[in-house]
From TrEMBL:
The lineage of its organism: Bacteria, Pseudomonadati, Pseudomonadota, Alphaproteobacteria, Rhodobacterales. Gene3D superfamilies: MazG-like. NCBIfam families: mazG, PRK09562.1. Belongs to the nucleoside triphosphate pyrophosphohydrolase family. This is Nucleoside triphosphate pyrophosphohydrolase. Residues 170-197 form a coiled coil.
C-alpha cells in the first residue's frame, strides 16, 4: 500500500486526489458505494457538477466556484480511475491526450503559423483542424461527432451549425420565423399525445434554430428565464407572506396582479 502520508498532505495536489480515489476504489478496503460505480452510473453526476460550476460562475460566487471545480475535477479522476482498472487509459494519458490536442489545434501559438489573424479566422482554422480530426476518426458525415449526451437545446444548435456548413440552412431569420409559425399551427392541429410530442419537439428545434440565427444561446436564455421566473415568483410569495398567507391561499388573479407589481418594481429599480 502506498504511504498514507500522501493522504494528509495539504499540498499533495492532483497526486493526493488520485491516491484518495485509488483507496476509495480498492476492492478489499475501499468504500462499497464507490467500488460499485461505473462509467454510466457516474455520468449523471458529471453532468450535474458541470452545471453547478456554471451556476457558481453565473452567481459570481468565486468561493463556491473553487469547490465546484474540485467536484468537477473529481469526476474526471473517477472516470480515469475506472479506465485504469479496465486497462483503457489513465489520468496521465488523458492529460497527455488533451495536451496533444491543444498543441495541434493552436499552430499559431505552438507552431510556425502567424498569430496575426482575426478571431473569426482563428475560428475557421479551428473548425478546419477539427474536421480533419473527425476524418481521421472515420467521422465523415456532416453530423458525426455531435455528442448525444449534450443538453437537447445545445445539441440542436450544434447539429444545425454542422448542417449549415454544408449549405443546409435558411439564409435569413424571417424564413425561420415563418417555419416557427408553421410548427405552432401543426402543434395546434395535433390530435394524439404521440403527435403532440413530435410536433412540440419540432417546435423546440426551430426555436433553437431561431436563437442561432439571432446569435443567442438558447440554453443560456432558458436558464436566465428560469432564474427570472424564480426571482419574481419568490417576490410574489414574499408579498403574500406579508399578509400571513401562502400562494395556495391566494388565487391566480391576485398572484398575476402581484406579478405585474413585481415587474414594475424591477423596472423602477433598473
Amino acid at each position: 500500500m502506498e504511504n498514507d502520508d500522501l493522504l494528509h498532505a495539504k499540498d499533495g495536489g492532483i497526486e493526493r486526489l488520485l491516491y484518495i480515489m485509488r483507496r476509495l476504489r480498492d476492492p478489499d478496503t475501499g468504500c462499497p458505494w464507490d467500488i460499485e460505480q461505473s462509467f454510466s452510473s457516474i455520468a449523471p453526476y458529471t453532468i450535474e457538477e458541470a452545471y453547478e460550476v456554471a451556476d457558481a460562475i453565473a452567481r459570481g460566487d468565486m468561493a463556491d466556484l473553487k469547490g465546484e471545480l474540485g467536484d468537477l475535477l473529481l469526476q474526471t479522476v473517477y472516470h480515469t480511475a475506472i479506465g485504469e482498472e479496465e486497462g483503457l487509459f489513465t489520468f496521465h494519458s488523458v492529460a497527455d491526450a488533451i495536451s496533444d490536442k491543444m498543441v495541434a489545434r493552436h499552430p499559431h501559438v505552438f507552431g510556425d503559423q502567424s498569430r496575426d489573424k482575426t478571431a473569426a479566422q482563428q475560428t475557421i482554422d479551428w473548425e478546419t483542424i477539427k474536421a480533419a480530426e473527425r476524418a481521421q476518426a472515420d467521422q465523415t458525415r456532416a453530423l458525426d461527432g455531435v455528442a448525444l449526451g449534450l443538453p437537447a437545446l445545445t445539441r440542436a444548435v450544434k447539429l444545425q451549425k454542422r448542417a449549415a456548413r454544408v449549405g443546409f440552412d435558411w439564409p435569413d431569420v424571417e424564413q425561420v420565423l415563418d417555419k416557427l409559425r408553421e410548427e405552432i399551427d401543426e402543434l395546434k392541429e395535433a390530435k394524439s399525445a404521440a403527435h403532440r410530442h413530435e410536433e412540440f419537439g419540432d417546435l423546440m428545434f426551430v426555436m433553437a434554430n431561431l436563437a442561432r440565427h439571432m446569435g443567442l444561446d438558447p440554453e443560456q436564455a432558458l436558464r436566465d428565464a428560469n432564474g427570472k421566473f424564480t426571482r419574481r415568483f419568490n417576490s410574489v410569495e414574499a408579498k403574500l407572506q406579508q399578509d400571513g398567507r401562502t400562494p395556495s391561499q391566494s388565487n391566480l388573479a391576485e398572484m398575476d396582479a402581484l406579478w405585474d407589481e413585481v415587474k414594475r418594481e424591477e423596472t423602477i429599480s433598473e
